[in-house]
Amino acid sequence: MVKKTLSTEEKILEAAKTIFHRKGFEGARMQEIADEARINKALLHYYFRTKENLFDDVFKAALRDIFTKLFTTVDANVPMEEKLKNLINEYIGFLQKNSYIPGFILAEINQNPGKIIEIFKSAPVSPSMLFERLRESVQDESLEKTDFRELFINILALCIFPIIARPMLQHILEFSDKEYDLFIEKRKKELPVFIMNAIRKK
Amino acid sequence: MVKKTLSTEEKILEAAKTIFHRKGFEGARMQEIADEARINKALLHYYFRTKENLFDDVFKAALRDIFTKLFTTVDANVPMEEKLKNLINEYIGFLQKNSYIPGFILAEINQNPGKIIEIFKSAPVSPSMLFERLRESVQDESLEKTDFRELFINILALCIFPIIARPMLQHILEFSDKEYDLFIEKRKKELPVFIMNAIRKK
DNA sequence: GTCTATATGGCGATAGAC
DNA sequence: GTCTATCGCCATATAGAC
Questions:
Q1: Nearest C-alpha of chain B: how many angstroms from A7?
Q2: Segments in chain B below pLDDT 70
Q3: Does B144 touch chain A (CB under 8 A)?
Q4: Which CATH number is A58-199 given?
Q5: CA–CA gap between residue B108 and residue A59 (Å, rounded)
Q6: Which residue from A67, A112, A140, B160 puts its CA 20 to 30 A from B105's CA?
Q7: Residue A86: predicted pLDDT
Q8: Looking at the domain B1-49, which fold is it?
């Protein structure tokens, strides 16, 4: 599903993204990426020289996409409750449209932590601003004193897990594709309530 | 790190578990498994014929381990709050000692859903009893009307995510190994409070 | 059952024509 | 820049001696 107007390099990156997200570094085949991009295998090496170069570019793009999304959604000057609603809605929406990204990142991190952490360090990702905003929001007097890092992880966990564990959960819960999609939609509304209850003073 | 009293087959399975958990199916090398088991590569094939057979056994064992743990911890006849405390404490403890299992399962599910779902179906895992117990617990009158499947996923997410995303989170939060371990310990106590707040009537 | 040696195939990477 | 053909390696798998 690659548009003809893309340059060869863009076609390759699109195809590599698809295949790497689906199969990981070890599972992906250069031939498969070439087929997906509708070009010859030798061209991959002409443009990117090695499989590892190609992978690094795709991984960095995945990191950039997911962090960009997190920043744009968390970094607004509105009250905690509203921010949380927007954040979860937009973030889960993003994860639905890019469902392979979090699983891809977590899988590679699991299988080659050293290499991946190196890429992390080279990426322009500084989550400190994100934390600062979250910390400010949590100062709200009607809220429990909350460790904002704990809260950050909880929000991430509750958003990401149902997406990356989907095949397993869908099987366990005996949901059809459609039922699981509806389940996620319902979740977008219920998750902010769940979290606000958890941190609101009684 | 394999004891000498184990049979060859057991030594192979132990070694395969270690390597597959760390590298996944595609990343693991039969030679590496043989080295880990301190035996010859040909013996792997003598006992298991193919890499896929060996992998299937390891994957099934991982599924069995994690579900067995879930059942033993959730399936007790105590009030919701106490059950939740025990469940989270024991489950996170299990995940700490077996930190490769959830990442392994999720990574393989992501990279080859079809094959893995097949293994799932053949595995003796019926989560219905687990759901039943959870459903009963949630009937408690002091609790919000809660979708027990939603609650089930939330608990899983909050326990598993900090373990599988550890390298990433540790890097983002700028924690040392020791600090992250302490963070998880603190979490064992705070997570039940967080969840009970979320579902308790106001 | 366990080993050494080898077959077989697949994949990343390159050479070289156009 | 793009292609066809091919190299060289490495991983799974097997043959066959002990």
A1: 28
A2: 1-4, 125
A3: yes
A4: 1.10.357
A5: 18
A6: A67
A7: 92
A8: Arc Repressor Mutant, subunit A (1.10.10)
